[in-house]
Amino acid sequence: MTRRIEWCLPEHERRLAARLGGSWRDLLYVPGPGLAPALEPGLYRSSFIVLLADGPAVRITSALFTVFGDTLCRLRLEAVEPPRLETFGSFFDPARRGIVYTMAPDHREAGGRRDPDHPEWHYGGQSLRPRLSLVTGVRLLRERAVSMAGGEPIEWVADRGLVLKGAGGEESLLLASPDLSEHAQFIPSLAFYGVLLDPKAPARPGATARELLGYGAWDDSLEIALELETL
Questions:
Q1: Has this prediction a pTM greater than 0.90?
Q2: Where would you tag: which of 26, 91, 196, 226 has the fewest CB atoms within 10 A of its CB?
């Protein structure tokens, strides 16, 4: 008997996702190790907070689910209280890097606070204000998959990401990550992640849809289909 799992955004999270269409004041991230991995340029892993011009602050992370020892995930959205801006880095104002808290002995006198000066700890690109200060479209990226797990067939549906269209037509991607529940992935410029939106797009070696979604180590029984839904 096939086990079926539905892991889509609940209605209140769908409403939050739809509200991302509009004006943004900022896109914040938590600085620190692993934010900007050198081996994956153009990808950022963190928990993110969208400051809407008119609406709640929206925190974006991942929700994880373990089945037969394997991890599935979906994007998670939460309305949160306005954060203390000085602790966060900003994609709109890259000079604002936030604060990293550390227990390293050489930083104890500073109360464990330090500047995230390592290149992999902060966003060092151009301001994304021109790209994301006005989001004109939001699409939901949904995966439908079948596989074998623990010797049993399973199939699932999961809402994996949000595709954001800026005023200039450029698209960015917020993607759930199976690595850590407090983290999602942010890809400002799709590049080879475009294969997730268009199955006809050429995939680079090591960057197929299943690998970009975190299923590179799964066996050949895995089959994935991706859908886009406008919110």
A1: yes
A2: 226
Residue in the structure block whose two tokens are 């407090």: 182
Taking alpha carbons only, the member of 73, 48, 50 closest to residue 186 is: 48
DSSP string computed for 147-165: EEETTEEEEEEEEEEEEEE
| 143-159 tens-digit pLDDT | 999 988 777 888 999 99
The domain locations on the chain are 3-230
State pLDDT tens for residues 66-124.
876 778 899 999 999 988 889 999 999 999 999 997 765 554 455 577 788 888 999 99
Angstrom distance (rounded) from CA 68 to CA 149: 6
Is residue 214 within 8 Å of residue 179, measured between CB atoms? Answer: yes
* Tokens 């151009």 sit on residue: 126
The two tokens of residue 125 are: 């690109």
HSE at residue 210, side-chain half, CA atoms within 13 A, is: 15
